[in-house]
Design goal:
Membrane topology: Multi-pass membrane protein
Subcellular location: Membrane
Oligomer: single chain
Transmembrane segments: 21-39, 75-97, 109-128, 140-161
CATH superfamily of the largest domain: Rhomboid-like
Order of helices and strands: HHHHHHHHHEEHHHHHH
Structural class: mainly alpha
Domain Peptidase S54 rhomboid: 67-213
Radius of gyration: 21 Å
Main location: membrane
Largest sheet: 2 strands, antiparallel
Length: 295
């Protein structure tokens, strides 16, 4: 199977939203980098600059109204040709996104990523258009990068599973709530630096992640509008037979037919005591989370 077939296969799968998000970011970055290299080589950067600036979210409303698509393109794009920008974001997204996907499902991970990007964009635009300190310090291109979306996923995972451990090289096991706190603190420090607007956008994404989980525990899914839009486009581009299957699987995922009863929860808790939390299936973790959210 060649690379193109591998990519087609991944995008045909239904429950791998994390992989798809990472692939989109990587494909956009590689394409932009290749264009940058050729533009440099031929000594003509006009095409690259045109595409690159249209990926950025402008700081001023007047520019944003001319490039409204940047509201979505900015959090699927990264600084070219700097590889460390995308590498840091994708590693963070992968580590924490796996937890969100495993415990809350593919649909909510995608919603978190998109809502985090939108929250970061809202903070960014408000700062550079209504706060005097920022109004005369707007960056030339604007904002680019998935950091606000990644921060939403990181903080959501830490809010959902604060005592979950990641084993860090040279450090050992560290609770993810402390890792999330470190990222937040770094952006807080940067809120008065050269990339002040970008760092405050990160904090906006982080706040969205926290609110998302807190509301979900109350039974309020803030990601439903995103899921509705996603399902609408899925219906447009999917054959009827596949569409019915997708809808049924979503119904099963969202409702699980009924709320978990005490007998089911006791069985899950008994399994934890015997084999540990890691022995639970994805469905059992989702059922346990649903039960805990009702308390």
């Amino acid at each position: 199977m060649n690379l193109l077939e591998d990519l087609k296969y991944q995008f045909r799968q239904k429950e791998n939203g994390l992989t798809k998000i990472i692939l989109i970011n990587v494909i956009v970055y590689i394409t932009g980098t290749i264009l940058w290299v050729f533009s440099k080589g031929f000594g003509d950067m006009r095409l690259f600059d045109l595409i690159y600036i249209n990926q950025h979210l402008p700081a001023h409303f007047s520019d944003f109204l001319q490039r409204p698509w940047s509201l979505a393109t900015y959090f699927f794009s990264h600084t070219v040709p700097n590889p460390f920008h995308i590498l840091g974001n994708m590693l963070g997204l992968y580590w924490f996104g796996r937890l969100v996907s495993e415990y809350l499902g593919n649909r909510r991970l995608i919603s978190l990523y998109i809502l985090g990007g939108l929250a970061g964009a809202a903070i960014y635009l408000l700062l550079y258009n209504f706060i005097p300190y920022f109004m005369h310090r707007a960056p030339l291109y604007g904002m680019i990068g998935a950091s606000a979306s990644v921060y939403a996923v990181i903080v959501a995972a830490a809010t959902l599973l604060p005592d979950y451990y990641f084993h860090l090289v040279f450090i050992g096991p560290v609770r993810i709530k402390y890792i999330a706190a470190f990222f937040i603190f770094v952006s807080f420090i940067g809120s008065v630096g050269m990339n002040a607007g970008g760092n405050l956008a990160h904090l906006g994404g982080a706040l969205l992640g926290y609110i998302f989980i807190k509301q979900l525990k109350k039974g309020i899914d803030l990601g439903k509008p995103v899921s509705a839009v996603s399902e609408f486009f899925n219906k447009l581009f999917t054959r009827r037979k596949i569409k019915v299957s997708y809808r049924n699987s979503e119904k099963s995922f969202n409702n699980e037919d009924k709320e978990p009863d005490q007998k089911e929860i006791d069985a899950i808790l008994d399994k934890i005591s015997k084999s540990g939390y890691s022995s639970l299936t994805k469905r059992e973790k989702e059922r346990l989370f649903r039960a805990s959210s009702k308390k």
